[in-house]
Amino acid sequence: MLTDGTYRLGPTTGRLLIRTGRAGLGRRAGHDLTIEATQWSGEAVVNVGDPDGSSVSVTVETDSLEVREGSGGLKPLTDADRAEIKRTLADEALLHTAVHPTIAFRSTGITGTPQSFEITGELTIKGRTHPVTAHGKGNGDGLLRGWATVTQSAWGIKPYTAFLGALRLADEIKVEFEVATLDPVDTPE
């Protein structure tokens, strides 16, 4: 049960996943990827009676993104493929992790209830900040789950291409979160 208070967020309390899709004539050759952020932290300040008085902030270490799954494709995703994707993510055309070591989200408004909510906020990737809306639900099972759609090119990310552009990742990716509603670290007096 979600109650008023301040909650610490991170890999011990939840998961952040990125799901990619394929586009182009060669899309059958590639994989739809599930990538997990393994190093991230955040804070949620919850005011159940006044959702707009609540806030969420999250920071992700860009070099902590790990490929967890690759579905589709002509052949299974190998460990060598996973290592190559990790190197590609760090590249200047994608996340340029050497210059931009973090991705950050800061809420600007929250509406709804713990059972169905929207979080609007600002997402900063590669030094560029744009608005994003996350949609979420709490199903009474102790978890909050949700998602947001992010268009990579808006942040200066060129979606990965191969085979002279015949295979490419779709520009829109889906960011998913799942967070356990543990006890708050601070509760209002």
From TrEMBL:
It holds the Pfam family YceI. It comes from the Bacteria. InterPro entries: Lipid/polyisoprenoid-bd_YceI, TTHA0802/YceI-like_sf. Residues 6-182 form the Lipid/polyisoprenoid-binding YceI-like domain. Belongs to the UPF0312 family. This is YceI family protein.
